[in-house]
Amino acid sequence: MKLALFVSGGGSNARVIIDRFQAHPEEGVEVVLLVSNKATAPALTMAAERNIPTLVIKRAEFRDTTNLLGHLENFGVDFIALAGFLWLVPAYLVNAFPDRILNIHPALLPNYGGKGMYGANVHRAVKANGELESGITIHYVNERYDEGNTVYQAATRLDPDDTPEQIAERVLRLEHGNYWRVIRGLVGG
Ligand code: GRF
Known about the structure:
Elements: E1 2-7, H1 12-23, E2 30-36, H2 42-49, E3 54-56, H3 59-64, H4 67-74, E4 79-82, H5 91-96, E5 101-105, H6 119-128, E6 133-140, E7 150-157, H7 164-187
Parallel strand pairs: 1-2, 1-4, 2-3, 4-5
Antiparallel strand pairs: 5-6, 6-7
Helix pairs in contact: 1-7, 6-7
The chain binds 5-O-phosphono-beta-D-ribofuranosylamine (GRF).
The site of 5-O-phosphono-beta-D-ribofuranosylamine (GRF) has 16 residues, from helix 1, strand 5 and helix 7.
């Protein structure tokens, strides 16, 4: 199973996934491509250091053409995991990979999802509402933000004194521990 990872930033989830499956080829998931919408994303260097081919896409090309499909085909991509990828996925891509695009969201959807709810915004909102629990949602991707069917959720307790940064750390730990596991469960050998 050939996996492409889509990122916009730091790529710590992408790193964990790449390292896991490079260390365990018997699990049958090969990361063959990392796609970034930002030419300066640190994830690009991280992937290159691990001998993973990378591709930077521009917004107009992503949204208004289907060129990306040709690239994905060239790499034999079967499955896509968004890992901190901030652009809405266009219909042509969803249709080309039905139930084969996953996203991870750093909250317990349907709460704290939708447009603008990403990164620190999510954890600030969780904090502002005094939540004592947050978590992760791994879901299939459709053409609307954060609305595809949920595959997996995990929760973590929050301390009332947690700052948004501390909430982010707790949630990121859950992401790192679970995203590769869910991918393996869905498509691994
Ligand atoms: C993660 O919290 C992920 O859930 C969200 O963006 C963040 C990306 O972190 N969609 P990283 O780039 O994987 O470090």
